[in-house]
């Protein structure tokens, strides 16, 4: 018998043997929880995945004018109340195993969306600061990255907050890039994270990667807010 990893209700098994085989393998969420998730479908901005009727949203047009440094972000779900609660439960309450909620959709989006360059993509997690890492106990971005069948390189480092602020307040006021690179990456990169909000984080990471010779940067995120 299976129980929903999120709400702990029993997962009803479908009646036929063949559907049971497929569902058994995949189902970690009950029908009710699955039903509350909204996948992004229909027209979307081809750069950031926002539901959008024409090809590139206004935000991304502005990024393009500044010389955008990401090729494309693909998000799976709309950021609605349910996914917000799920991510909160997972990330801020330290319920690591809840990453299973996203495994199937994440893998399938990776295979479908990045199939052409999947073989050559290196997966790059967004690092947490040390203090965040201590609060949370795990890095959600790395937890997602590990579910993909691709090599991971942790080449980004987050500059530590306080010391940086004291040393370099001017730069911080200018919203200096919080990331540095531990080793240049010469292959195309796929950044994986939970939420794409303004797109600033992924672009700051991409800026560092590209500055050090990375040819292309994509991103794959669970939700688009
Ligand atoms: Zn449920
Ligand atoms: Zn866009």
TrEMBL record:
Write the protein's name.
Amidophosphoribosyltransferase
* Origin: domain of life: Bacteria
Matching entries from Gene3D superfamilies are given as: 3.40.50.2020
Family listed: Belongs to the ComF/GntX family.
Species whose genome carries this gene: Oceanobacillus sojae
Q: Which SUPFAM superfamilies match?
A: PRTase-like
Spell out the InterPro entries in the cross-references: ComF/GntX_DNA_util-trans, PRTase-like, PRTase_dom
